[in-house]
User: Which sequence fits this backbone?
């Protein structure tokens, strides 16, 4: 589906009178020196993408990648155009889960084609932002490149922050006195961190190249902008690594807590056993059948025995209490 | 065994009238400028391979490697020809196991020799596919190189996907409430991942070189194709690493679960002991031989005692219940 | 808030008669050849920073970073000026916790602007120290660069030393005979080490560049000073890594201790159970109702039975004692 | 001890009439253009080695290394000669242990000196093999270099294969239902793997240099042979790494199994306790002294009570059985 | 404190008639072309070091480092002189502990200044050795550099060997049948290994540069000597890494042993409980008050009951024995 398509001239969107949204060839024909066309697609069908390919002369292998998605983040040159694959991430609050999509960008001298997969990560915000900053947009297609990367990486940071909160929760749970089963939660978080890492790490190399101004077709003066993006990306990578390490430690602490609790239980149980076993011993004493057992003939022998029983339990209880077992 | 041998001219298979399948020398003689011969062998005997060596002038050390198999994946230049070793992998559903084979390729200016070991990974699909794509095949022997690599790496991805499912199963099993013994399963999966890693990792360097167009004898215009293969390879490597890390965490979670279960058992056992010990204490009370024990003379003393016993069990049961021990 | 602003000439602070503290433009105008201005800000508002930007011609992206803080440590060139981000760290004794702030430095040919965030890490010490060392200050703005880095890294070392003490305490606690819950303490320390690492590691690369004299705009003769800073930074990094590894081992030792203690408890408990169960067995013997039980008729049968009971407990106690269980 | 010394000319051993085995100076004097002398020593004494040093002009530091052995594998140039240190490994079946020795090689334009330490790894096989391959031997001293490296690395592979079998055994033991103490075995294997790694890893760099034809004094045409050796070395390194990782996982599985077994034991024990405690409760019921206990007067009261006791045990047994505890 | 100071000419110590030990300026003035002065200091005071600085024109920052010690090992150039920091290590048998000191060396064209901190690692041995080897000493100040490095690294090797023995002891203890508490010992050893690593690892880079002859001011012909030192250093580094990995495995084995022992204890305890519980059950049977219990009237009923009790214990004992629980 073509979400939007427009011609930009000197940093401003140009109204093209006789242009039906889907007629990309006509749109491109309107582009003069320094103008460029930005076509935005969302989960396009094969034929839609084929038409785009024909209009802008994209490379077959890249188009195939853009159709099927599920690529690794990468930046590649095909003849005159650049092809960038980005993973989009967003955090779904209801499930405490990270979901992923994909954005593919084709960049030529006078066009940008963006192909988005997945629900989240709409690019219309980037477009609106850019259209408000004539100055940035005047850098041409590379500005779109930057704006999309910037938005996507901003979303990484948001996801990173959300995961940081999740880790804080897990941490609080692990070290709370309550008995919680944190193993599954930690596992899931580790799995989500792995997801984020899979989006972030392979993107660092392309961003570094863009930030270094090494990519022909992307003007050198945009490098500081990409440097900013690369920096944020690096920060996300560090956050993810650091959270992963923390979770490993938290997991170990969880296991230690389970063990400590088992210890506590065992001692509490043992004390309880003593509370019952001690008076049982007393009972077995007075259950003996000796002919000469003076207590048996006492008037208050029975209450006396009960008192001894209670006392024996009390002694056990006090000892256990003092040892911190109860 | 020679599986197939044929002459290709301008991207098409050429019928060579007077050619018996095994007469490779005659076949090669038919090859004109720009033509090439593709000979496919499956677990050849020494003499078969020796004949091939003689016809195409292959290097002794490479031929020895191709005969014995069990090489590391590698790409090497011997005089005028290239020698590529690939591990083939396939997933056997019945055993949930990964099996391995090997493909050796010799590439000269006018020939390709493929030597396959092991049951799986037949190359006839590659051959059929290629013969349908005249355009690709027209790139000469390098096209065969590409086609075989592509098929082999596709199979890696299939194996990776199958293992991902296995890991999902293990994960479900570890976090299910049932008591399963997941240690052996996790161990086996880790072992299989190590197998895959052993096939994938050493191949990355050769693929990178081919993708960079650095290998003389392989035309630069095929580089994008190899870049595609290298990319898939990289993805498999990342999947494998990520699965391995997940399995480690899953293993830790499994051990934690065993411990938690032991804890649960211990508490359940303790509660059960209490269920029996409490009435036993009551019994020992009324088994005492005091002369003055009013209850003993009661008409309903015995039912009363039984009721106290039941009550004592009930109290234990309620306490245990409330503490979540039963 | 503008904390201080001054003009330096030939290594000395110059009084500028008609200069109100906030009038930076006037101050800068006074700067002749070889002079420089040092403006120190603390958590400036947007407008304050905007004015500074206008006066010194700073780059927008850098100013935005300096406004919002929460950047990674980095050194970047924007047109004519350098932009350095440092994390400040200080150890709060009351909480045994590490807190973080941030310092941003802008360096031009004739100015330094320092922007500080967070409570700790005041730079007035650096300024006073520098103003006392005319010789160092004569190196121009780079001297301020050095002085700030030096102070910040000195504080890293202080934090490292404080954490070393904390680790020593944890270590003592883990190996003490007392039963302490060290898991949370170790976790917190690991978390703080991660904090320090996040400040230290990314700074190494910029310091290495400054120490190598590779940064244009910073005179080569200051390189030995930055080498000194880089060296201290490296030492902090090594201390942090080493503490982290020690904590991991200490954690393992803690878990092992928990297990050993459980073992000890179990044996102690078992011995205690034996102390009660043995005399109970004796009691059950003499509670049997045989007609012919000579002891029952003995005069001192009852005391004898009690003695046997006590003896049985004593035997259990001695056996347990000898086995080291009590 | 001088094991063998001979002159080689055009790939063949030459009989030197008037040559006593120990008279190396005379032997060397016989060497014409393109000839070379191969002297093989086994654990030489200082004076023996000193004589060799004098005859061939070896460097003092290298000779000292060769005398004392216990060097790291390395390849070094001293003036005109090369000095190579190799660790030899062999597997002693009786002890399931890996033993180590050392080979030092000196290579000059017209000589090779091999110095062997330790029982295993005799080089006479290399010499015999080489003497049979005139073609290879014709490459001069470098052929000896190659032959020795090849033999030593072949032995590494044999050791690797033997350790693989050991790991398989351990694996089988860990996952067998029997209770085996695998910790010590795993530890020993890890220690032996570390031994192998210490021989293999430092050798990779020299082999890579020889395989790249970068070592002056070793003819470029021998590079493919060294490439073969380097490849095998790499394979051994991968096998060792992979076995080490497997052993770590196997160890974790072993610990998990111990824990699972403890769990099983605990449940079995608990069930057994129940088998005794339940009828004891019944006994305590009928041991009560109530005047009105109808069962006591029944004719078959006693058998009835015994039956109730048996029944109570049976119920416990069935419950435990069903829960899988017995 | 100035330990020794002397003038060396052509590899020999020269007596300077009118030279008081502390008059370094006079001593240096005596040095002709190719001579050099070696001044050895031990924990000098500030003024002592200041005098040395003045005489030899050392750099302020380096002198400050040498005064305070606690530097990382490093090699740095300050103007015309080199500054090398080494950590010294020695093993104190009484405590089984590694202690550390520091040596700082200043190297100029005609002087060497060595500054030693800490008790151990006296350099007088190096001086005596060197004075005996005129040939080596003739290489000038670099010979002193080499001699000190050689001695220090030799001591590293001695420490490594001592730690290897300690690890062997711990290993023996972990796998002995006795119950030992090895956690603290392993922890301490790991801590000491970290200490050694901190001395060894940063020194590798300087040694590699010296071994490569890349350091101006140190003659190229001394490179083989430094190569030797670098090699030993590398060996120590490998030993330390390998010991550290072994200790980790040993620790895991220790934890596993604790768990196995707990298992053994639990089974032994359970069997013991059975030994008491079984006869108690018998006792409770004959404690029942049925009117019709034939055994009660038997003449040898009581001995019979005792026999049954003993038998029941025996059965438990045999069963436990057979299961390996006792």
Assistant:
């Amino acid at each position: 589906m073509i979400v939007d398509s427009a011609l930009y001239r000197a940093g401003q969107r140009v109204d093209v009178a006789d242009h039906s949204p889907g007629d990309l060839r006509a749109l491109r024909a309107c582009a003069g020196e320094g103008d460029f066309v930005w076509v935005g697609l969302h989960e396009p069908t094969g034929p839609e993408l084929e038409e785009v390919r024909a209009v802008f002369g994209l490379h077959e292998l890249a188009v195939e990648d853009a159709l099927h998605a599920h690529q690794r983040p990468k930046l590649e040159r095909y003849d005159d155009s650049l092809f960038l694959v980005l993973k989009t991430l967003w955090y779904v609050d209801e499930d405490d889960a990270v979901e992923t999509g994909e954005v593919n960008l084709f960049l030529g001298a006078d066009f940008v084609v963006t192909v988005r997969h997945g629900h989240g990560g709409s690019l219309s915000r980037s477009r609106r932002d850019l259209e408000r900053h004539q100055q940035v947009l005047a850098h041409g297609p590379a500005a779109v490149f930057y704006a999309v990367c910037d938005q996507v990486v901003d979303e990484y940071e948001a996801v990173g922050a959300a995961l940081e909160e999740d880790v804080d929760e897990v941490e609080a749970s692990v070290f709370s006195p309550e008995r919680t089963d944190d193993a599954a939660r930690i596992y899931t978080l580790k799995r989500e961190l792995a997801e984020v890492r899979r989006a972030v790490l392979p993107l660092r190399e392309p961003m570094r190249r863009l930030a270094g101004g090494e990519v022909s077709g992307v003007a050198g003066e945009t490098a500081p902008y990409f440097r900013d993006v690369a920096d944020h990306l690096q920060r996300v990578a560090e956050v993810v690594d650091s959270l992963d390490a923390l979770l490993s430690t938290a997991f170990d602490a969880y296991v230690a807590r389970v063990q400590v609790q088992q210890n506590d239980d065992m001692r509490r149980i043992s004390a309880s056993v003593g509370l019952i076993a001690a008076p049982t011993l007393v009972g077995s004493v007075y259950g003996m059948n000796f002919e000469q057992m003076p207590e048996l003939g006492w008037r208050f022998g029975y209450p006396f025995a009960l008192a001894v029983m209670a006392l024996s339990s009390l002694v056990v209880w006090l000892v256990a209490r003092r040892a911190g077992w109860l």
Q: What stands out?
A: The beta strands of chain A are 2-9, 12-14, 36-42, 74-78, 81-92, 97-107, 111-117. Residues 223-286 of chain A form the longest helix (64 residues). Chain A has ten helices and seven strands. The radius of gyration of chain A is 35 Å.
